[in-house]
Amino acid sequence: MILPAQEIRRRCASLAPMIWPFVERDVVRGMSFGLSAASYDVRIAESVTIDPGEFVLASTMERFCIPNDILIVAHDKSSWARRGLAVQNTIVDPGWRGYATLELTNHARSAVTILAGDPIAQVVCHLLTEPTSQPYSGKYQDQEAGPQHARDDGVLKDALPELVTIAFTRFKAELPRIVPGLSDDEWDKFKREEDQRRERSHAHPS
Question: pLDDT tens digits, residue range 58-94?
């Protein structure tokens, strides 16, 4: 089921507003934003110029706090779609919080300029049959304002051994001040035991 205007309004008036700031309905540069019959038109937070065939990321001015029984889908806004701009139909999961990053592509033959504060996409709120037992808890939770690029969990994992080595090297340089009299043999023994502990931990994760 899709939420009508009155239910969107009610959920945005709660202590944890689903969409904030909430606007009943307004017009800027000839385009409407805010609440409509069964959706809400959000605005772009930064000015962008998109060349033909170009893809850019942009952020909404609005912050979302999605209840566990709601799923939001961001659709093209017709005024922009008729000029060749697509927003890739972004999905916002139940339980997610933050400023939405939109993926914009210009399919037209000329550049498109969008000014900060312009209406950019239409979000439709879908009601689940019951609150999900698996609300969003991933790496984009509490996403900050501004366009956010994809976050690769594997990058940090791959770099971890080198980071640990650097940390130990810098820590060793501070040891004479922290533990006066610690010998190199004692340091090597400590580091060897720590390496073995980490290897056991990786082999038998809890």
Answer: 999 999 999 999 999 999 999 999 999 999 878 999 9
Bond from prior residue into 147 cis (ω within 30 degrees of 0): no
Q: Is the model's pLDDT at 30 over the cut of 90? A: yes
- Asked whether residue 166 carries a pLDDT value surpassing 90, the answer given is no
Q: Where are the domains of the chain?
A: 5-127, 153-203
- Whether 54 is catalytic is no
pTM value is 0.73
Q: Which residues contact 142 (CB under 8 A, 6 or more apart)?
A: 97, 98
Question: What is the fold of 5-127?
Answer: Deoxyuridine 5'-Triphosphate Nucleotidohydrolase; Chain A (2.70.40)
From the list 24, 103, 144, 162, the catalytic residue is 103
Q: DSSP label at 154?
A: H
Q: How far apart are CA 103 and CA 147, in angstroms?
A: 9
Quick one: pLDDT at residue 184?
A: 74
User: How far is Cα of residue 173 from the mean position of the Cα atoms in its chain?
Assistant: 39
Instruction: Tell me the pairing of strands 70-76 and 91-92.
Output: antiparallel
Q: Which of 111, 12, 109, 121 is nearest to 58 (CA)?
A: 121
